[in-house]
Hints:
A hairpin with a 2-residue loop joins β8 and β9. Strands 1-4-5-6 form a 4-stranded antiparallel β-sheet, with no helix packed on it. It has a 4-stranded antiparallel β-sheet with strand order 7-10-11-12, with no helix packed on it. It is mainly beta. It contains 1 helix and 12 strands. It folds into 2 domains: 13-73, no CATH class; 88-152, no CATH class.
Amino acid sequence: MTRPSRRARPGALTRVVDGKGRVSVLSFRYHVGMAYCGLSVAVTSEDGLIHVHHAGVLVATHARRHLPEHDDRFTDRPPVARPTKGDEVLRRVDTSGAVSFAGTSYRAGNSHKGRTVGVRMVGDTIQITLDGLLIRTHKARHDRSKEYGALSKPKGKPRRTNVA
């Protein structure tokens, strides 16, 4: 049973203790104890030490193994993925959660159905962005000879209208 931990102080990370009684912080593992497997703990870094708290009680202290200049990465916030520079075209995500670029379908995700996303060719990858944030990256699978056509129509093919 995972219980939320109370944060010991501002700047604490929340981690779940793995099956071997450890937590991972900045690619380093610290032993907490088998009694805490599956439970949430708060981890803080202070004065060269890593402190682990469960329910507001200090349960473990270790020497900090990451470099002091990496303290800015000591956060629960995921890094913001930013797309790289390049020509972007707009495509609407279809009902299957994919966009079409250069005659090939690339997955954007079901949560983006019906939305307009940006598609960008960077090297041998396709980047799909939404509101300036990178949401997916794919290895390019399309025919390279069709890129010019895809980039020449930045908003895609015009919608068909039935004129009766």
